[in-house]
Amino acid sequence: MKKIKLVIGFTLFLAMASCALQPIASEYTFIKTDLAKVELDKLGDGNILIYNGATLMHKLDNTARLNIWIDNKALGQIRPTEYVIINVKKGQHHFKVVHVDVVNMKSEHDVNIDTDTKVIKIKPTVTSNKLEVTNEFPSNFEKLKYAQKR
Q1: In 3D, which of 77, 84, 83, 75 has the Cα closest to residue 63?
Q2: Strands across the sheet with 129-133, in order?
Q3: Which contiguous run of DSSP H or E holds residue 49?
Q4: Radius of gyration of the chain from Cα atoms?
Q5: Strand duo 145-146 + 129-133: pairing
Q6: Helix (H) or strand (E) run with residue 26 in it
Q7: 73 with 86: CB under 8 angstroms?
Q8: What pLDDT, on a 0 to 100 scale, did the predictor assign at position 33?
Q9: For each successive 10 residues of the chain (150 residues), what is the average pLDDT?
């Protein structure tokens, strides 16, 4: 009987720990593009590419999905190996990022968007999320796909 309770408890823990993050509806207009037509020179002046830079560790345990808000306006969910291109006004913006591990991992980041801001990498970490303005495509950019509005 004790083994059965242990197995049930462990199964429930795994089920709760691996629950996928529910997508949020985007309030932004995505700038649709074909991956082959995305050029770094055409980004900037408020047009920014945001991608999920999750590592293999987060992809394997299904904790790599990111829900993102910019200035309390939902950008939506970006899954691993996905990107979006949106237009954001120049100035200071507040990003809120959530991914689910055993608990909700939330982080907040202030980012200054200027004429030179082109690419933002956001990725889940073990204890939070990391946001970095890279202004360059990732080395595996050809494997990324455009995120769908969910």
Answers
A1: 77
A2: 129-133, 119-124, 47-52, 82-87, 145-146
A3: strand 47-52
A4: 17
A5: unpaired
A6: none
A7: no
A8: 66
A9: 71 57 75 74 94 86 90 94 93 96 90 97 93 95 84
- The candidate with the shortest Cα–Cα distance to 140, out of 59, 79, 82, is 82
Report in angstroms the alpha-carbon separations of 15 from 1, 77, 113, 115.
21, 21, 39, 45
Provide the H-helix boundaries in 18-124: 56-60
Q: Which of 68, 79, 73, 75 is nearest to 146 (CA)?
A: 79
With H, G, I as helix, E, B as strand and everything else as coil, classify residue 147.
coil
Q: Which two tokens stand for residue 98?
A: 């959530």
* Model pLDDT, residue 20: 64
Tokens for 83, please give them: 């990107």
Count of residues for the chain?
A: 150
- In the three-class reduction of DSSP (H, G, I as helix; E, B as strand; rest coil), residue 39 is classed as coil
Which tokens is 106 given? 């939330």
pTM, whole model, 2 decimals?
0.81
